[in-house]
Amino acid sequence: MDTPDKGQREMEKDEMRWILVWCLLLEMLSGCNSETTSSDPIGPTRILKVPSEFATIQQAINESRSGDTIRVAPGFYPENLTIDSKAITLLGAGRGLSIIQGFVIFKTSQGSIKGFTVTGGTSSGIYLVNSNMTITGNGIDQNTLSGIKVENSTGLISDNQITNNGEEGVLVEDTSGLVIGGNTILNNRTDGITLDNSSPTILDNIIQNNGADGISIRGFDRFSAPLLTGNKVHANGSVGNFDIVCLGPHTNPTGNGNQFGSCFNCSECAQLAAPGGGL
Q: For residue 227, how far is the Cα from the chain centroid?
């Protein structure tokens, strides 16, 4: 029988794996999305504690400077958060323990958010714009729009449970240099993942039972050329929907080892499949 310590070690190994993948990718793609750096210089690091030192998470964010960690105790936090031009870490007590009822926006920022449930936001649960962020180990559910929206940003989205959101599980626009890995993306109202003119790396995700397409690759204005590897994409949508679909004249997905039930309009459908796992 697996012990809790063994399970924790396995989670830490998975996390380190995704961080390594992200670091290698960023090294290869350094220089892209140059607007994502924070303008706030990094000083001596501090740990700011919520609620023992600050009554709300936003109060701690306002007080923080780049390099700080905001540690959030278990509890229910009904607030919308904005992080603007800072490089900070938001660290919760764990998925289902530190609960943000609202949305979280990162603008021109760097850092990470880990160990929260983000639920009930009136827009996208987590929104990145011109930022470089790690989003890992969170539950993101029942938000009005997308679970996570990424616009012109880089970073790592890993080991999250992204479920039951009002639109896409993950919406990516005008972005490259992003890794989406090891997430469970289920029961979102529209697509599991939508890529608009974007070329992230998408690997080892479970994408199932979403209301429209599993992975929708859209290249109407510029190329969408994602790398898809080792994903399990099944039972998405109904008539007229597909597990993987290419839309527009500028799509060029690559990869292999994916398991899916249907793939449409991508000339690469056959090469994307695992042996016996797709078309």
A: 15
